Amino acid sequence: MQNRTTYSKLIRDEAQKLGFLFCGISKAEFLEDEAPRLEAWLKKNMHGEMQYMENHFDKRLDPRLLVDGAKSVISLGINYYTDNRQADPSAPKISKYAYGIDYHTVIKEKLRQLLQVINEKIGEVGGRAFVDSAPVLDKAWAKKAGMGWIGKNSNLLNKKAGSFFFLAELIIDLELEYDVAPTVDHCGTCTNCIDACPTDAIVGPYVVDGSRCISYLTIELKGEIPAEFKGKMDNWMFGCDICQDVCPWNRFSVLNTEPAFTPHPDLLNLKAGDWQEITQDIFQKVFKNSAVKRTKFTGLKRNIEFLRNEI
């Protein structure tokens, strides 16, 4: 038991050195409470065209099916909040999380370093790192580890840091000391996020219809954006921050200190007209290492065109 405590402290300390805002540890086991919620959400087709959400249902709920001999899930959070803004208020908007280098790349490297330190200082430990790269229910594990509660917009909220942070995991075959801090819901009677969503994607407290979310429509959806969303996109061309921007808990957000999340020097200065005339070359230059590449040049052009033709 003493070793578990020592190892857990070592991991938390190393995570902090690597720039992680949070580090919580849970026992790797079946997420019993999440199973009926996930099943009901899928049956209502709230995942839209995200067919991958239907795959590996059991693996999403049990990390032991992802990592042989898994004993612990180390949940990590890294802050991406910034007060940088696009210079032209009339320009199509891009979510804050995509201002800098693709977070998948940045966090995966930090997880690799953390796992390396664990092996160097504790011994041979088997495990895998996850950053949106496999069927892992990030928010459920973070909540279980006491890092916050799931808000009415379905994001993980933390009293001291709001919600502008990425989540990631290390699932390892080492027993550790597990966090048992109770997670209390602090949303109260607030409905800011529900009231502010222009596409009515938050269909009820704690339930988001992903197929109506602006982030889904501008990133995940590969076909044409349905006409019913004309005039409802609030000028977002990639992602959306509305439900986070209006959340009272985000008044506690602090500026991130990760150099990789610094916006590309050209990104924030592009005017509305520049976006209308964006070329493949400019796209490649500005978004070379960005998460925006996920939507590809044709996808971004589709989004910009849809916004221009909004009535």
Descriptive notes:
The structure is a single chain. This protein is of the alpha+beta class. The chain has 2 domains: 2-172, 3-Layer(aba) Sandwich (NADH Oxidase), CATH 3.40.109; 192-247 and 263-308, no CATH class. The protein contains 11 helices and 10 strands. The strands form 4 sheets. The protein has a 4-stranded antiparallel sheet with strand order 1-2-7-4, with helices on both faces. The protein has a two-stranded parallel ribbon with strand order 3-10. The chain has a two-stranded antiparallel sheet with strand order 5-6. Helix 1 packs antiparallel against helix 4 (103-121). The mean pLDDT is 92.
Q: How much of the sequence is in beta strands?
A: 5-15%
Helix-strand category: alpha+beta
Strand adjacency order, main sheet: 1-2-7-4
Q: State the name of the first-level CATH class of the largest domain.
A: Alpha Beta
State the share of residues found in helices, binned by percent.
25-40%
Low-confidence stretches: none
CATH architecture of the largest domain: 3-Layer(aba) Sandwich
Biggest pleated-sheet summary: 4 strands, antiparallel
Compute the gyration radius: what is it? 20 Å
Order of helices and strands: HEHHEEHEHEEEHEEHEHHHH
